[in-house]
Description:
The protein is of the alpha+beta class. The protein has helices at about 20-30, 35-40, 45-55, 85-95, 100-115, 115-120, 140-155, 170-175; strands at about 10-15, 65, 70-80, 125-135, 160-165, 180-185, 210-215. It has a single domain (about 5-80, about 115-215), classed as Gcn5-related N-acetyltransferase (GNAT) (Aminopeptidase, 3-Layer(aba) Sandwich), CATH 3.40.630.30. About 35% of the residues lie in helices and about 25% in strands. It is globular, with a radius of gyration of 16 Å. Bound molecules: coenzyme A.
Amino acid sequence: MEHPEPSDIEVRQVSPEDAGDMMTFLLTHYYPEEPLTVGTSPPEPETADKEFLLSNVPFGTCFMAFLDGRIVGAVVAGPKDIHEPEHLAEEAKKHAGSKWGRILHLLSAVESASDVCRRFNVPSSLHVHALGVDKEQRGRNLGARLMTAVAQRARDLGHPLVCVDCTSVFSARLVQRLGYQLVNTLRYEDHLDASGQQVIRPPPPHESVQTFVLQL
Ligand SMILES: CC(C)(COP(=O)(O)OP(=O)(O)OC[C@H]1O[C@@H](n2cnc3c(N)ncnc32)[C@H](O)[C@@H]1OP(=O)(O)O)[C@@H](O)C(=O)NCCC(=O)NCCS
């Protein structure tokens, strides 16, 4: 297949009017492969998960990549502050017993261990919650372009950091190439519930959640 030149790709901020199209894209190209979503049943993301991603649109921190007017990539990001570990622990408790609750159980453990705002002694960070590229367009640097748009927006908003919990080996490699610094690794096999069961079981090659930070 003939691949487009990167200049054919346009990256734009997601407006509230675009939010529905962004979710349709994520349901096709992000959720069916995202390791946390795939690693716990049922396969479909829950409403609370989708609502959480959509709640980030009003911050103006979400971006989509377009090719000939068609969405080929999306990134969802939003601000967090030093209270994020406590906030996520509460959210995980609130959603306990559901798929979204199991995902939050793991993300809460990751946030407590990485604790990036306290670790870097900064008041806030822009956190990347989701990144997806059209299967047909992978390997063309679209993920990197979307992450660069997020970093630029973080600078404009005065956030000293961009942070991402890479649940996939592919996103981890991508941000390492962009100069992100690894601050924490949690292996899926080491994250257990109260009865000693592994909470999330993603398929290979995904083995861990790696938290990366870019200092701006
Ligand atoms: C993470 C993601 C956005 C990266 O896509 P991308 O920006 O196209 O990635 P890159 O440009 O860095 O690709 C580098 C190489 O990895 C390959 N690659 C990227 N994602 C891949 C995937 N999910 N499966 C297999 N190969 C993949 C590319 O084809 C490319 O290979 P090449 O060098 O032989 O051409 C993409 O994998 C994706 O949408 N995954 C599904 C959702 C997900 O898991 N998101 C991350 C959660 S944190």
